Amino acid sequence: MTTHCDISPADGCPAERLLKALSGKWKAQIFRLAVDAPVRFNALLRQLNGANKQSLATALKELEEEGLLEKEIVQQKPLNIQYTLSEKAKSLIPVFRQLDRLA
């Protein structure tokens, strides 16, 4: 099945923009982990073998800029920052599950 996009090249295809938003080091893995529960930076470092602080921070920032993750500061001692899927990202969960079934 193919998807035809009647959008000028300057606008880009919505599916293409989504794939670009989720491409890159660690982004798909972060998305998958965030489906089940909020994720924290240090927990992600432990869960993603081979991840380093810089690449993980970049991926989280880009996912947040794309509107797929929401950053939340948890006001408790010690101060924690956690990331949760946005409503936009939650709407994509069925798409990812379908892709998992196809793989």
UniProtKB/TrEMBL annotation:
Judging by the UniProt lineage, the source's domain of life is Bacteria
The entry lists its GO molecular-function terms as: DNA binding
Q: Which UniProt keywords apply?
A: DNA-binding, Transcription, Transcription regulation
Q: Is the Transcription regulation keyword given for this protein?
A: yes
Q: Where is the HTH hxlR-type domain?
A: 13-103
Which PROSITE patterns does the UniProt record give?
A: HTH_HXLR
Protein name per UniProt: Transcriptional regulator, HxlR family
